[in-house]
Specification:
Length: 263
């Protein structure tokens, strides 16, 4: 099998121009097939506040009413996606920017929840991924850059968690490639103490994660990230690492970051 690197970038790195440039330069240097999935950072939240649109997160997931959806689409599929694509082109990386609606890449189902109205939030599974399109782009020498905007097939755009997108795409392609998935953000990895950057866990088993989540040691936005990560491992991807964006180039060779272990 050919190796396929899938990298998800998010967190505060999206909002810091110098850090983002350094990360994108490292990403562009990865040899072979690769896909970049990006989040939205704080930009959508800041723009929503500036426009007088209340912003609400529940367990790290954004409540997306109709007005917030307009903001997320403008920021995620527009400004951030095309900024990343143009920067990658400057590094000699032939990036191809996509939302889930483009080429019917990612269809999704509007989330239904018994207690919470998430609004225009979409959930996806491996069956929702147009793997043929991704393989065609990869075989043609393009590097897909995917924003966290999907669609329902009925003319509605949906906001979908970028960690979930990276996990589901990795899972969908695991039978065709040796997929190495890396989650990059502003932390050094999974921390036992979120306020102590030196408390990194170099390895994390699923059973240990579930216990730490139960104890409240791992909480908030790390929960959906790690739930998605272990889902991808269960689906058969070859490797999964969580690391600081500045360590992307060295996380495989020097063992920097947190390596997730299925069992």
């Amino acid at each position: 099998m050919q190796t396929l690197h899938i990298v998800k970038i998010g967190g505060n790195i999206i909002d810091e121009a110098v850090a983002l440039d350094a990360f994108l330069e490292s990403f562009s240097a990865i040899k072979g097939n690769k896909i970049l999935v990006h989040g939205g950072g704080k930009m959508a939240t800041d723009l929503g506040h500036a426009l007088g649109i209340p912003q609400q997160l529940v367990d790290g997931r954004r409540i997306t009413d109709a007005e917030t959806l307009k903001v997320t689409v403008m920021v995620y599929a527009g400004l951030i996606n095309k900024t990343i694509v143009s920067k990658l082109q400057s590094f000699g990386c032939n990036a191809f920017g996509l939302s889930g609606a483009d080429g019917n890449l990612l269809t999704a189902t509007r989330r239904l929840h018994a207690q919470i109205d998430f609004g225009w939030v979409g959930d996806i599974t491996v069956e929702n991924v147009n793997t043929n399109l991704l393989q065609m782009l990869l075989d043609s020498g393009f590097v897909p850059v995917i924003s966290p905007v999907t669609h329902d097939g009925n003319g509605h755009l949906l906001n979908t968690n970028a960690d979930t997108i990276a996990s589901v795409i990795s899972s969908a392609l695991a039978s065709d490639y040796a997929v190495k998935l890396t989650y990059c953000f502003e932390k050094n990895g999974v921390l036992r103490d979120v306020n102590d950057e030196d408390s990194i866990m170099p390895f994390l088993k699923k059973e240990e994660y579930l216990q730490l989540k139960h104890e409240g040691i791992i909480s908030k936005g790390m929960i959906p990230k790690l739930d998605n990560a272990f889902n991808a491992l269960d689906a058969g991807i070859a490797q999964l690492t969580i690391c600081h964006a500045k360590h992307l180039k060295s996380c495989e060779t020097k063992g920097i970051g947190t390596y997730l272990i299925k069992s």
